[in-house]
Structure formats: C-alpha cells, structure tokens
Amino acid sequence: MLRRGLAESLLVLPAAAGIGWLLGGLLPGTGSPWHWVLIAGLLATLLPPLAALAVGRRAGGRSDLGGRSPAVRLTVEVAVLGLAVLGAFLLRRRGLTAGSVDPLLVTVPVLLAIAAALLALRAYPWPLRLLSRVAARARGSVAFLGAARAGRAASTGPLVVVVLAVATAAFCGVVATGIETGRDTAAAQAVPGDLLVRGERFAPDTAEKLAELPGVRAVAPLLTVPAERPYADRAGRLAPITELRVVLVDGERFAEVARRAGVPVSVPDPLRARADGSTPLPALVSPAVADELADAGLADAQGERPAWLDVQGNRLPVRNAATVDEFALVDKGVRRFVVLPWPALPADAPHQLAPTGFVLAGAGVDAAEVDRVAREGQNRYLRIGGVGTGDKARAPEVTARSAVRADLGGTGVNGLLVFGFALGAGGGAVLGLLGLALAVLAGARSRGQVLSRLRTMGLSRRQWRGMLMVELTPLVLVSVLTGAVVGALLPLLLTPVLGLPAFTGGVDVRPQFEPGLVAGVSVLAMVALGFAIAVEAVNNRRMRLGEVLRLGEES
C-alpha cells in the first residue's frame, strides 16, 4: 500500500509543488529559496501514502466524514493543520502588507480556527468513551446511553462553523478590550492626573493657590526644559551629547496625584529621593541618552563623574540611576529625555526653581478656575522686578485627561473601530448559536430514531431530557471552549502585525487575560446548551417521536 501510494504521489504532487512555486514567483515580493520548495514538495508527496498506511492498519476503521474514507479525512486534517502552522509562521516573519488587503492575514485566522476545530473533534470522543465505560457499570441507562452517543464523531462542518464564529467573537472582544486599555494608558501618559497645566514659568506659590480650589485633592509641580545640552563639568565645557529634554518632578507629590486620580503611573524610587543639588541627582534616562552618556564617560551610577545640566540658571550634577523607555510626563514621540527629582536648592542658589506646569487630582475641578489661577500665577512671576510682560507670554494650557481619552476614541475611524469589534463579537456569538443549531439538526435524524425506540421501550420524558443533556453538553462545551481558546490566542499572533497603535495614540496594544472573557464564555456556553436542547426538543416534537414506531411512520 505504501509503495502504491508513494508511486501515485510521485506522479502528481512534485509537479504541482513546482508549478505552485513558479506561479508564486510571479507575485510581488521576495521569492522562496529552493530548500523550502524541496521541503514542501517532500511533505506533500509523503503525506497521502503515510495517511493511507496509518488508516489501513486499522482494519474496519469507521467513516467519520459522511461516508468518506478515513484516509481522506486524515489527509485533509493534516494538510489543514500544516497550512495553518506554516501560514502563522510566515505571517509573523513577513509582517503586514500595507496599503492593500493582505490575503495571508485573512486566511491564517480561518485556517487556525479550522485546524483547532478538527483537533478538538479528534480528541474529545476519547474521554467520553472512557466515561461511557464507567457509566456502563453504574445503575441506570441515561448516563451510559448519552455518553456513548456523545462519544461518536459529530458532524464536522457545522461544528467548524461554531468554532469559527465563537473564535471571531472572542478575538473581537479581546482586541476591543486591548484597544480600550491602550487608549486609557495613552490618556494617562499624556495627563497623569485629572488635569494638566502647562505654560511659562509660574510663581512658586501657584501650587498652593491651585490646592485651595474646590475639588482639588492633590497638586504636583513640574518643570520642563524642552532642549538642553549637557555639560562635561561645572565650568561649562560642553559634552559630546546632543540636545535632550529635561523634566523635573516632585516624586512624592506626583505619586500622590496619580494615586488620588486613579491613574496607573509608577514612580520609581530615584524620583522620590530628596537632594539639595550639591550631590549628583539620580536621573531616569532614555536609552539613547544613556548610550551617549556612557560613551562620553559621564553620569555613571556612582556619581564619580557626573554630567551637568543648566536648569533655569542652576548647574545641577546628574548621575544615571535607571534607564527607562518612557515616562508619563514625556511626550510619546520624544526619545531623548532625562527625568530628575525636584531638588531643594539652598537659599544662596543663583535662582530658585520656578515650575512650568502642574498636575492636579480632582475629578470635579472647574477647569476655568484652574486656568484663572494659572494665569494669575504666571503673571505674578513675569511681573517680578516691575516688568509687566504678562500679556506677551504664552497663555497657560489646561488639559483634562477625560478630554484626551475622548479624542482618542470618540471620533472618526477611532470611534468606529471599537464599535466594529463589538459588533463582531456580538455577531460571532449569534452566528455561533446558529451554527450550533445546524450541528444539532444535522444529527437529528439518527438521534430521533434512537429516542423513538427508547420512548417506545418505556423511556420517560424526564429520562429522555437527561439523556439529551448528557449527549449535547460535550458537543456544546467542546465547540464553544475551542472557539474561545482560539479567539483568545489569535491576538497574540495578529496584534503585532495589525498596526493597532495607530488607534491608541502610539501605545502598544497588549492582549491579556480578561476575567470578563471567562464570564462571557461561561454565559455563552450555558445559553448555547439551552438553545441546543430547545432546538432538539422542538424538532422532536415536530417529528412526534412517541408515535413513530407505533404508527409505522418514517422518522
């Protein structure tokens, strides 16, 4: 058998693999190396004879695909599984084709769901057969008959539809949740509180004035220098480092603002340090700046050779305490920055530090009042020395985190995206129920014949319902759970190539385990089970099972 199958395969499949490779070379992109073509041709040649050999050893093997040969079914299943794995590998390796519909992106999720459905259909009858053997030793026939019928292979087509639909619903739900979480994170990074005030320099007492407003629960000052070039020493010799952004923040007060505003912002320990500016300040440094400082031999962790920064006329020594990729008060597009704790400068310092902004916690704070107090504070600082320049300065800007969050998800394509995913989740659940109804109706004829005979032999209506419950429960659970698992794992594969950060303000979408998904799947499974039993009951009532054998009618 093996020699015959191999001979038949050699006549057809290598030539087909070569033609496919030649046709693929006509498509845009880089052609595949020869070794991949040889591997694909070898696998395609060996698969049919090996499948026939594996099935041929099981004499009397049953036909599970509507009377088709088990060899045909095994060949189809292995081919689908191989294509799904290969497609997933190529998709992660190649990425997304921008500007057009990507056929690989469209087909890989479907192939993965079909492969998972076929594997589940292959695996789930085995534990049920063991359960039926155990039930055969127990009293009563309901559990035994139900488990025995459930252990037989179910109709493949409708169950694949159920798995696809549930996987679509789970995928849409997970991605929609990830997008919403990413937008929340983007809004928290832009405004790590309830309100953010930015402007020119403010009078030092502006923070206390803002804290006195109704609804304000905490205020943290911040100071931003948009472009600053470090010095190699206190004398002012420039270091071989390009310009960077400098941010000073009171770590303790900033952490209090984030906590009271309910914003998940971490404040590293170096920012909570108390320093007076006479010793090197611990700094959070971006990777690009950290590399340049290391090459220049500056800002070492021990502070033996610090870098120096000029902040409002004060030369501050800096050491690299930690390297971070991002920080909440630094704009997403800024890749060169240094974040320092707010130093307590001595009284004889050349200049006292003046904040350039504030972060406030307080959900019900009046933004207009905050703007008024900020304008007054800025004008007080600019009128120092009797120079009235307050009207020429840039007016302070007050930004609410809720407004940033609404801009990210409330308009245009951003507003339609999550709606589309939510619609996909709901539509997938509905289609899953319809597919399950088709799966139940596909086996209704044989099930009706058995139930008709058992009812004639004295099976009560209660026992019939129990048997129906035992038979349909594995079918429903396997299809729903398989679809849910596939849908929950697909975002891990597809999210890196979908370009979703464009809809979350540049924040990466990280799919993660959601307790709501478990609750949704559990509810869907219970609804699906009730729906399947209701469909079966309506169909049996229409067929009048109790009268079939007695009246001699066909079932």
Biggest sheet details:
9 strands, mixed
Report the portion of residues in β strands.
5-15%
- How many helices does DSSP assign? 17
Shape: elongated
- The amount of helix comes to 55-70%
Uncertain residue segments: 59-67, 385-390, 548-555
Quaternary state of the chains: single chain
Count of extended strands:
9
Q: By helix and strand content, what is the structural category?
A: alpha+beta
Can you offer a commentary on this structure?
The protein has 555 residues and is α+β, with helices and mostly antiparallel strands. The chain folds into 3 domains: 1-61, no CATH class; 78-187 and 411-551, no CATH class; 195-407, no CATH class. Helix content is 58%, strand content 10%. The protein has helices at residues 2-25, 34-56, 70-94, 103-123, 125-137, 142-150, 156-190, 206-211, 251-261, 287-296, 367-382, 401-409, 412-442, 444-456, 461-498, 515-543, 545-551, and strands at residues 195-198, 218-228, 244-249, 281-285, 307-311, 314-323, 337-341, 357-361, 397-400. Helix 15 crosses helix 16. The two termini are 41 Å apart.
